[in-house]
Amino acid sequence: xxxxxxxxxxxxxxxxxxxxxxxxxxxxxxxxxxxxxxxxxxxxxxxxxxxxxxxxxxxxxxxxxxxxxxxxxxxxxxxxxxxxxxxxxxxxxxxxxxxxxxxxxxxxxxxxxxxxxxxxxxxxxxxxxxxxxxxxxxxxxxxxxxxxxxxxxxxxxxxxxxxxxxxxxxxxxx
Length: 174
Known about the structure:
Helix content: 25-40%
Number of strands: 7
Strand order of the largest sheet: 1-2-3-6-7
Number of domains: 1
Number of helices: 4
Shape: elongated
Structural class: alpha+beta
Strand content: 15-25%
Distance between the termini: 42 Å
Largest sheet: 5 strands, mixed
């Protein structure tokens, strides 16, 4: 019973978006990540006929933002990020044949896109910064980066890194 009351307080504090996707919420340290209705995301599949719920792409994106929060969110603050849509870089081109249905073709005509809302709150719960962002990187293939070379979500991670660096000053050096 107490858990239910605590959950209702949490919903009241962070809005209905959190309540609708409670199963997709993860809180670690300085950040809380929510994927709002991930089954409606434009493209987070691992094959042409795949489902978003069967991939690990969302987990990888979530874990990356949680890791980056350690460096950009001040001690005692919390970053609340709600992903409302993700369209991964590349796309499936089924006209190549049945063997190609699980091959993501990455071309500059398929850039990564991420829509999100965020709220940075201090230790007392006051909102320090909040907003809605539609992240795009039309030049994603022109960037030379060895950070995530063999990573299937490298373009999305780079897009999120660019957003975090531009939105928040770095607080920790490592």
